[in-house]
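Duplicate of #3305? Posting structure anyway:
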């Protein structure tokens, strides 16, 4: 049976429009880092570097090399971890040029170093991608988090974060990182801003 993250991992990827406490286990990702305005071409180029690798692994069952324990699945959604430079933190308003980001696509558990090497080989033979050598394969464990579904433009996320912050305080928790994670359930190129669906998540810990 094909693994559908929307169906089989609802707790992680399909939250409701109210905050919830979740524990995020260790997960494998293709990641790439960058700095600057996400509206710039460089950001799009970095995204376009991740997808060929993700699909190279997804389609390996049709090649000579099939990873051990391979199963059919839906490619996971794009995610991003967002931060600001020290200069950006000093400013009263958000300067998108001072944003720091790590964008990523999760990979299934069966993916190992050999599978990754073969994916890189496949992509290098088919495409010339400017940022391919900047992509890393790594494991990330977020642990205890608060998350919530945000519906609407990315520029309105502060409204959802305010609700999350109030929930965090009410549940005797504290945010432990200034970074936050976004999981993009909608394709911003095809969906109107008011209909965009984004999972917002940040790390928390119990107050001492």
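Output from current build:
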């Amino acid at each position: 049976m094909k693994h559908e993250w929307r169906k089989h991992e609802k707790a992680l990827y399909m939250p409701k429009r109210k905050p919830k406490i979740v524990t995020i286990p260790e997960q494998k990702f293709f990641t790439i880092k960058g700095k600057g305005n996400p509206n710039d071409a460089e950001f799009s180029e970095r995204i376009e570097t991740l997808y060929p690798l993700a699909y190279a692994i997804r389609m390996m069952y049709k090649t000579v090399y099939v990873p051990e324990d391979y199963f059919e699945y839906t490619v996971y959604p794009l995610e991003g971890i967002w931060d600001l430079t020290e200069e950006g933190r000093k400013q009263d308003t958000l300067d998108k040029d001072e944003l720091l980001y790590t964008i990523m696509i999760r990979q299934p558990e069966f993916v190992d170093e050999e599978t990754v090497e073969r994916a890189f080989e496949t992509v290098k033979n088919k495409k010339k991608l400017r940022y391919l050598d900047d992509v890393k394969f790594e494991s990330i464990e977020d642990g205890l988090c608060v998350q919530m579904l945000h519906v609407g433009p990315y520029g309105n996320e502060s409204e959802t974060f305010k609700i999350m912050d109030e929930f965090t305080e009410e549940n005797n928790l504290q945010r432990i990182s200034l970074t936050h994670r976004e999981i993009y359930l909608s394709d911003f190129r095809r969906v109107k801003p008011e209909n965009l669906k984004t999972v917002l998540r940040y790390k928390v810990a119990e107050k001492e």
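Confirmed duplicate; merging threads. The chain has one domain: 9-206. The chain has six helices and seven strands.
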